[in-house]
Amino acid sequence: MKWKVIGFLALFVAALIACQNDEDLEFARYYSGGMVIYQSKCQNCHGSDGKGLAALIPPLTNQSRLKANKSSLACLVKYGSKTAINPAAKTFGGEMPATDLPDVDIAKVLTYVTNSFGNKMGTINTEQVEKNLKDCK
Amino acid sequence: MLWGACKFNDEITRLPIAGNRDVATKVVNGQTVTDTVYQTIPDFKTVNQYGDSIKSVNLDDNIYVADFFFTTCPSICPVMHRNMLKVYEEFKDMPDLKIVSYTIDPKHDSVAVLKKYADKLGIEGNRWWFLQGKKEDIYKLSSNYLVTFPVEDAKEKFIHDGFFILIDKQKRIRGQYDGTQPDSVQKLINDIKILKAEPEQK
Q: Of the ranges A102-111, A120-129, B141-150, B177-186, which one carries the lowest mean pLDDT score?
């Protein structure tokens, strides 16, 4: 009986570790892929440190803003923006260009951005991006 | 001792002078003197972000850094001006240093657009000018700065290189720096200090 319990516990722990590893693995895959995409598609404007450029290009360092707009980030990356991101502050009036990235790459780059520059929001996977893209305004 | 001091003065580090050069012979005080004539930036006519007419004479007695850009540039311009801001900040207290950015898209980049761009970049006063001129003139001028002649392109709009060019008070080219590379821009900052120390640049 005692060994059964220990065996069961060991199995349970092993399963837990395996599970976590799967999650970690998914995150690592998205994050590292996203880093490469960020460097080629986003970094020129938003900067290697995500700080943007003065009031011309918005920073990506504000986690509470990213969190508040989490479901529309995919739309922003895919379709760009023609209007001021923050009209109240009269800044960032320039356009953000649309990208031709496939959904999986949008998910990767969003995972990178939302987990860099002081942000820590976890994985944004392809399924989430597909779902969010259906609700673009 | 005095002679020694003079000699020491003459051994200061100098930046090279770029561009074509020619030899001119002229008569000074009855003696024939042969001297090197260096390539200089020719006169130009532009308008800055405040709507003021800016000609090359407005840069007399200034060391200046020039670049070519356009406000809707999707590729290298944000990188260039992120780096140029470092130069701007570094020499805020140097009264005889200016920065001039010529737009290569004057059709879109009107005075109002340039002013808005400057405001958003946080640029005030007359230290950094954003200049609009006739397109043909600016394109031609770019070759005097020894940068690549801009090429119009459907996707990127305009293809140009991201060089910062350092011009001395005699309007000679003293250095070219890749404005997209932080290391290169740091070299520009160091070179401005070296140039400023040359006796002809006081």
A: B141-150
> In this complex, which of B78, B81, B122 lies closest to A55 when CB atoms are compared?
B122
Q: Residue B198's pLDDT band (boundaries 50, 70, 90)?
A: very high
Crossing angle of the two packed helices B182-196 and B77-90, in degrees rounded to 10? 30
What are B88-131's pLDDT values in tens digits? Answer: 999 999 999 999 999 999 999 999 999 999 999 999 999 999 99
A2-133 belongs to which CATH class? Answer: mainly alpha
Category of B102 on φ-ψ map: left (φ > 0), alpha (ψ -120 to 50) or beta: beta
Inspect the interface and report whether the beta carbons of A57 and B78 lie closer than 8 Å.
yes
Domains contained in chain B, number:
1
B9 in any annotated domain: no
Assess if residue B17 is contained within a domain. Answer: no
Query: Cβ contact (<8 Å) for B121 and A95?
Result: no
What is the rounded CA–CA span in Å between residue B2 and residue B12? 16
* Domain at B176, CATH number: 3.40.30.10
Residue A117's pLDDT is what? 97
Give the pLDDT score at A96.
87
